[in-house]
Fold:
Amino acid sequence: MGMNMPSKFVVEGGARLHGTVQVSGSKNAALPMMAAALLAKGATVLRNVPDLTDVHLMAEILEILGAEVTLFDEPGVVVINVVDESPITAPYELVSEMRASFCVLGPLLARRGEAHVSQPGGCTLGERPVDLHIKGIQAIGCEVELIRGNVTAKGRPTGGRVYLGGPMGPSVTGTANVLCASVMGSGVTIIDQAACEPEIANLVEMLNAMGARIRGGGTSRLVIEGVDELKPVDIAVIPDRIEAGTLMIAGAITRGDVTLERCDPDVMLALFDKFTEMRVPFERLDASTVRINCPHRAQSADLVTLPYPGFPTDLQSPLMALLCTSDGYSLVEEKIYPERFMHVPEYRRLGADIRKQFNTCIVTGVDKLSGAPVAATDLRAGAGLILLGLVAEGQTDVLKIQHVDRGYDRLEDKLTALGADIKRVDYFPRRRASDRNSQRARAA
Ligand code: EPU
Structure:
């Protein structure tokens, strides 16, 4: 990966994918679990961590917060050794790079009694507020204020009743923050409308292994009895269900035969339900292996994104890629991030037929797409563009792949192993008029 030079993926469409790949660990489980390591002094070991730029960023934040972090001395292993428990501030430079860094708020508050974490801004998915995180932490007896762009939380959690339901459902990282804030301290905390995502269940498993007393992980009610002290742990991150889904869709869209190992089919039922509706044949070979073998064109299907166990918003743009090439019309409704359709104009550049109004798109499947240069607007949009590139005629250049690198661990290697023609290519950034002017000024 060139350090200063941007990279793009050059995809040549047409190959039918076939073969076996192993799914990496979950990004959205790993990031809050890394933050939760701040709850105990000493060395926490996380296994099956994906090698992503977001994980490297979280490591940088933890180092600012007094941890020594060792990344991938062994494959998948991250060691977070908390040595200095005095820092309490997560700066804007890092939080603005990655919203998940807001997950340090709960652990810092619980363990160090005070936390200053920059308020994250909006992003390409929309506004992305943190009001539920704040409301939850206030409900367990702590003070939260916004001071000069920092969310400042203080006090010792005393327990309480927390209702985390928002207009778009519960908040996933909001649940992680309130959970981590309430594990240490006095009293009992009951969180209702907690996020039920498997990534939260994984975090609960970790916290309980550290000595926390939490019941109800993976359900909408979490009951937490505060404890005085937590100890570091050694624990594995669950498989990434979004990466697994993306790779299955890659199999389906190329009419290939793809087997995924080290995944968890039990948490992918909403996607499987769509595959059944779309007449995409798949089978569960064992508890951690699935195979998709789809020699024909998929049928259209309607899609609504919902909190888990509903269809995940993170697979909306990848599945939409498959719908773009399926037989018939599909309705896609986004109920988590109503504005998460930045990929639509890029899909259209490849020949997709999509009409959009507010949070809903009508996708008409087309017989043929043709390659073009396109740009990833966010991580999952980038994945969707690669999927379309795999079946578009000719060459598709996917630019802005730094978004893809945030959340997919060597996606191009996995696709190449399955027979795809995809290359990472460095390219010279376009020179801006202002650069040319300053060059001229220097020359003069
Ligand atoms: N929301 C509020 N108030 C809040 C927090 C959220 O109204 O205080 C709203 C959001 O605006 C959104 C909905 O609630 O409409 C759900 O947002 P949530 O807080 O659950 O999202 P998140 O925790 O910030 C995580 C994942 C996202 C994933 C969403 C939804 C991590 C690190 N990120 O974000 O992952 O899309 O849950 O499932 O876990 C991705 O991996 O590409 C990604 C964006």
Notes: Residues 241-253 form the longest helix (13 residues). The chain has a mean pLDDT of 95. The first strand starts at residue 7 and ends at 12. The chain is about 30% helix and 25% strand.
